[in-house]
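Let's practice the habit of predicting before peeking. Look at the sequence and jot down your guess about where helices and strands might fall. Then scroll down.
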Amino acid sequence: AYIANSLSMFGDCVTMAVDALTYLLNITAEMRKVSQRKILSLAQQEEAALAIDLLDARVALLSGFMLIGVTVYILYDAGKRLHSE
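Done guessing? Here is the structure:
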């Protein structure tokens, strides 16, 4: 994307990286949830499940903000390129 000087390729690369990070964080949260079911009591499991659900929500929120940020940057850079030519 950098060598080709393509905003489309750059945007696609960054959004794929954000998606990969989101998947990694969600898989980690799910693995923690499964491992905690084996160790904790029922009351502790419910509390841990709420904490992991909160983590899932935060990951989704972070992903959304990052994708909005990338979109704003791409639009800004495209506008800047249009005005410079």
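How did you do? Residues 42 and 85 are 64 Å apart (CA to CA).
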